[in-house]
Design a protein that fits this description.
Order of helices and strands: HEEEEHHHHEEHEEEH
Structural class: alpha+beta
Number of helices: 7
Strand content: 15-25%
Helix content: 25-40%
Largest sheet: 3 strands, antiparallel
Number of strands: 9
Length: 278
């Protein structure tokens, strides 16, 4: 009896990384995509370590950070951004409000209770903050539509009648992020989201599922946030699997690259022609 798309909230993992990167580009924290950051070893914050699932053990530039989904570099960039700019991003994307939709069943974000340095770093890659899949869909629409956040709606909007919305990113930042999202699918963790004949872009996100006694090491929430066609974005597709099971085809793995990304590929391949995307 729950609408998990609008009512349930989740830590959506690395799907947040492009949002963080866009804010860094927008605010001038990242001025050169070729600048390299140290990802040779985990970051120690108190008794916690921030480490990579696919450690490259070298210095990474911004495109490589997204292609290899580096928590370490994303955390470093979030540290440079600071709490005020990270929180400003989340508020502008509507995360501080219930999801916008013409339904009563709307979930509210689980916001960090204390926003210290470690929290600032982990929210940058989608841990320590929980939003609904609809929040994420609206954020990705903002990321690629030229940088303007608008409330989601179930109503048909006549051309030219869309709400004014609010600017979150510049047009140039949005164009840059389209290229980076496409690169993740052609060269990175999102390869299995590619759909023949369509230019798909997007980002994987795998988060350990919280439960009694802390986070599970064996159960996760796997998400793929996708956009197509990347040269002139028209559609956002969010595929999220709650507690996916590994199969022979996924070699027993339950990460988003092996579970949610293929779902996106199938959805786009079958619905793209119906939607008139050639």
């Amino acid at each position: 009896f729950r609408n998990n798309v609008t009512q349930s909230v989740y830590e959506l993992g690395s799907t947040f990384k492009p949002l963080t990167m866009a804010q860094a580009i927008e605010t001038g924290v990242v001025t050169n995509l070729a600048r390299r950051y140290d990802a040779t070893a985990p970051i120690q914050i108190g008794r916690f370590q921030i480490k990579d699932d696919h450690p490259q053990k070298r210095w990474l530039n911004v495109p490589e950070t997204l292609v290899h989904s580096s928590n370490i570099v994303t955390a470093r960039i979030a540290d440079d951004l600071g709490q005020a700019r990270m929180e400003d991003l989340f508020r502008k994307l509507g995360f501080a409000e219930a999801a916008h939709i013409e339904l009563k069943e709307r979930g509210r974000t689980i916001w960090p209770t204390s926003w210290g340095r470690a929290t600032n770093m982990t929210t940058a890659y989608g841990h320590g903050i929980a939003v609904s899949p609809l929040h994420l869909a609206s954020a990705y629409a903002t990321l690629v539509n030229g940088g303007i956040w608008r409330p989601a709606t179930l109503m048909k909007i006549e051309p030219g009648k869309a709400p004014k919305g609010r600017r979150v990113f510049s047009q140039q930042t949005s164009i840059t992020m389209r290229r980076l999202l496409r690169l993740i699918v052609t060269d990175g963790t999102g390869k299995k989201a590619e759909a023949p004949g369509f230019r798909v872009g997007g980002k994987t996100g795998t988060a350990e599922k919280p439960g009694i006694g802390g986070y599970s090491k064996t159960v996760n929430v796997s998400t793929f946030a996708a956009v197509f066609p990347m040269d002139a974005p028209r559609y956002v597709v969010i595929a999220m699997l709650d507690s996916p099971k590994g199969t022979a085809e996924s070699f027993g793995l339950t990460t988003a690259a092996w579970t949610a990304a293929p779902v996106v590929s199938n959805v786009i391949a079958r619905t793209g022609p119906m939607l008139g995307v050639y």
